[in-house]
Amino acid sequence: MKKMTALTSFALFTLPAHADYKKRDIRLHDCPASVQKTISNHARGLRVKEVEYIRVEEQTVYIAEIRIEKGRDLEIFVNGQGALLKTSEELRIHKLPQTVLSAARAMGGKIDDVEKVTRKGSVVTYEVEIDRKKGFKDLDVVFSPSGRSLLCKNFDRTCNSLLQFLNIYGF
Asked: Cα separations (Å) of 167 from 96, 140, 159?
């Protein structure tokens, strides 16, 4: 769950000491009923592995992790009121649309991790991690289904504020 690792790292090392930040693992049945319902509706009938409760300042996010198959997880992001924020599904490279695969390969390097992200129930993007040769920064690229690069981030990017971090990592 890379995004949670990034959120945790950011909060622990860069947020001011006075910032309101809480993170903990909880059980699905400990979530509010509206959050449980949203997670269950999007879990595809599969078992929820874990749920993380994250509260940063006034924003609450529940992130449920579901194992789809060995090596592939589905994350369901739900706000404190039970509204679905997004889902993020790890994909195998051969499951990428050909347009996205071609565009990612054209950026040079080796395609490493691939995620299909769905926001607002229908807005689909593909997040592709590209490991590049020594001397070149690895890339995290967001593609539209047509293969258009929407956002390209270097992994060494430093976030200077909570708002910038939340925008970069799709919250």
From this structure: 24, 14, 10
- The single-letter code of the amino acid at 170 is G
Beta partners for residue 149, in sequence order: 143
Which pairs from 126-132 meet CB under 8 Å and 24+ separation? 126/91, 126/96, 126/97, 126/100, 127/88, 128/96, 128/100, 128/104, 130/104, 132/108
Is the whole-model pTM more than 0.90? no
28-32, 94-98, 131-135: least confident range? 131-135
Query: Residue written as tokens 């910038």?
Result: 164
How far apart are the C-alpha atoms of 69 and 1, rounded to whole Å? Answer: 15
Q: Could you read off the pLDDT of 30-63 as tens digits, one per residue?
A: 999 999 999 999 999 999 999 999 998 888 999 9
- SS3 string, the chain, reads CHHHHHHHHHHHHHCCCCCCEEEEEECHHHCCHHHHHHHHHHCCCCCEEEEEEEEECCEEEEEEEEEEECCEEEEEEEECCCCEEEEEEECCHHHCCHHHHHHHHCCCCEEEEEEEEEECCCEEEEEEEEECCCCCCCEEEEECCCCCEEEEEECCCCCCCHHHHHHHCCC
